[in-house]
Design brief:
Blueprint lengths: L6 E8 L2 E8 L6 H11 L8 E6 L6 E4 L2 H10 L3 E8 L4 H6 L4 E4 L2 E4 L1
Parallel strand pairs: 1-5
Antiparallel strand pairs: 1-2, 3-4, 3-5, 6-7
């Protein structure tokens, strides 16, 4: 398949699950649209709050995608693949709430009481 500059290939990872799909650069113009598509692809829309990051292909840095400017920069680096990582915003706190445990921070460690 030949490289098409009007499309971007997305490889996204959430937990241990990977998704691969293509987007038309002209149809997804904002971070909010992109965030919604990523949530739909991983089936987490309205279930959890999540953040997205991408890997800079030149330096290998992990950079956030959290606004329109960062989203446009991420698309510019994708030639043709954009590697996206999806993380839970809430971290480990919901697990504590589900188990009715209270986290206590002691010397940089989280203890369950």
């Amino acid at each position: 398949m030949a490289y098409d500059p009007s499309r971007v290939e997305i490889k996204s990872k959430f937990d241990s699950e990977y998704r691969r799909f293509c987007l038309n650069r002209d149809q997804v113009s904002s971070f909010d649209d992109f965030h919604s598509i990523i949530g739909q692809k991983h089936r987490v829309v309205d279930l959890i709050d999540f953040t997205t990051s991408y890997t800079d292909p030149i330096h290998g840095d992990l950079l956030p995608i959290n606004n329109d400017d960062n989203f446009r920069r991420a698309l510019q680096t994708a030639t043709p693949l954009l590697r996206v990582f999806v993380y839970r915003k809430s971290g480990i706190l919901p697990r504590f709430l589900v188990n009715n445990l209270l986290p206590v921070v002691c010397d940089g460690f989280i203890l369950l009481t």
